[in-house]
Amino acid sequence: MKCDAMAKKLAVIFLITLIFNQTSALIIPSAIVVAISSMGYLGPKIYCQLKECCSGKWTSPNITGLQLSLQKRVFGQHLVTETVSKAIIGHLNNKSPGKALAFSFNGWTGSGKNFVSKIIAEHLFRKGMDSKYVHQVIATHDFPHQAELKHYKKKLKDLIVRSVKGCPRSLFIFDEMDKMPFGLIDVLKPYLDHHHEVERLDFRKSIFIFLSNTGAGLINQELLTHWKEGKKREEIRIKPLDEALNLNEFNAKTGFWHSSLIEKHLIDYFIPFLPLERSHIKMCAKADLELKGYPVTEEILNRVADEMLYSPEDLKVFSKSGCKKVSSKVDYIML
Ligand SMILES: Nc1ncnc2c1ncn2[C@@H]1O[C@H](COP(=O)(O)OP(=O)(O)OP(=O)(O)O)[C@@H](O)[C@H]1O
Ligand SMILES: *[C@@H]1O[C@H](CO)[C@@H](O)[C@H](O)[C@H]1NC(C)=O
Ligand SMILES: [Mg+2]
């Protein structure tokens, strides 16, 4: 506003100079002054055209794209597709959400927890995982030593405060939650809670996603029971899984679950990722073959699926590595 007024004032001066002094000696310097002062006004706009800012195209969410991508690209996770996009839309539509949105993604290896997180990031931020407002924290990489707890606490706090200062709708993804140093996660408590302000900032527009394998055994057991009863996979509801998770594993006093996030109900949604079956392995293989420009035949898909190991030993229903090794198996087979 100030710049705008200044630019106008300078423009007037420029015109007056133009009218009263027809000498080019004065016109040129005043033209330069006007040009520079309007640059100061337009500067941020030009900057945000080129560089990432917390506004406009950089942070406008692509909700239809998110829903579509989750439905089309994520296989065998009907609970995830149903819950995640709804929860995110609800939070985004709320002009002043009561608290930060917090998900816990739980499930077997290779079931799509990182994959879904990436899809979310890509549809909330133009630069996806490369956005400066998206942070992926990997426990064993970023916080490997319990002895450094004090230093880590500060590091984590700084990361969150810095990001939210830059953009209230920041996204934080915590991978390997079960391997976080004991006590570190407690640092997050004030940012996840219903506080109006923490350190003069409002954290309630941010989104947190916690990934772990915690509870995977229970989820698989639930699904196997369901499967043995001859029921369809798509018929399993979130509630029995939620109950199984809440009652058992999360009460065990280890790592993440020891922290007060659970006790204080700071996590809004526990999203169970189901173990993937042979048919899903083939779907992953098809997607990977198409991505790499290879032909897709039933024979190739079966060869990829045959390469995987399945559990339990007697029934062989669930892929032991989910879709995780599919891409490398495809490379190997197509070589
Ligand atoms: N449900 C799924 N639908 C489609 N592709 C999947 C799915 N699950 C996994 N994939 C594919 O497998 C790759 C590995 O999955 P991802 O890294 O998301 O597993 P994860 O659940 O994070 O496993 P971990 O617990 O070992 O970290 C993904 O990049 C994706 O290509
Ligand atoms: C929204 O997401 C969809 C699916 O990923 C994509 O095809 C589309 O180009 C995106 N739209 C914008 C405006 O980025
Ligand atoms: Mg993962």
TrEMBL record:
GO terms for cellular component: endoplasmic reticulum lumen. It is found in: Endoplasmic reticulum lumen. Residues 1-25 form the signal peptide. Residues 276-332 form the Torsin-1A C-terminal domain. Keywords: ATP-binding, Endoplasmic reticulum, Glycoprotein, Nucleotide-binding, Signal. SUPFAM superfamilies: P-loop containing nucleoside triphosphate hydrolases (SSF52540). Transmembrane segments: none annotated. ATP binds at residues 107-114. One of its GO terms (molecular function) is ATP binding. Its main location: endoplasmic reticulum. Belongs to the ClpA/ClpB family. Torsin subfamily. PANTHER family: LD13476P-RELATED, TORSIN. This is Torsin.
